[in-house]
Design brief:
With 121 residues, this protein is mainly α. The protein has one domain (9-109). The protein contains five helices and two strands. A two-stranded antiparallel sheet has the order 1-2. Helix 3 (72-83) crosses helix 4. It is globular and about 40 Å long.
């Protein structure tokens, strides 16, 4: 867990400016846009596909409905149902879509705040 404050960065997008922490995560998930997702995905060397957007949409809906971001187990369950697979299969799909993992890429691209007290890959 961090003990020092984040150094904030301002990112200028065609639709306006957004603020990110030093890890590149949005400081306010309400400022997320598809422009932001595309920009961050490009930084992570990911070309977003409809499969990516299904996961991103699930994560954003979960955050809106529950007031907290979904941890990886909920996203893995979503992927298992979506691809009609088991837990190892859903984990494989997660890493196919986001090779550096849920926290490093999926959360960042979906506009979630950086998790502070847990890591799920």
């Amino acid at each position: 867990m961090r003990t020092r404050p984040d150094k904030l960065q301002e990112l200028s997008l065609p639709g306006g400016k957004v603020e990110r922490d030093e890890g590149g995560y949005l400081t306010d998930p309400n400022n997320w846009s598809m422009e932001f997702a595309e920009h961050v995905a490009a930084e992570e060397s990911i070309t977003l596909t409809p499969d990516h957007y299904e996961v991103i949409d699930f994560m954003r809906r979960y955050n809106d409905e529950h007031g907290v971001m979904a941890d990886a187990r909920f996203v893995l369950k979503f992927l298992a149902e979506r691809y009609k697979t088991d837990k190892p299969g859903s984990r494989k799909e997660m890493f196919r879509l986001f090779p550096y993992g849920y926290v490093r890429q999926a959360c960042k691209i979906a506009g979630m705040k950086q998790p502070r007290a847990w890591s799920t890959g």
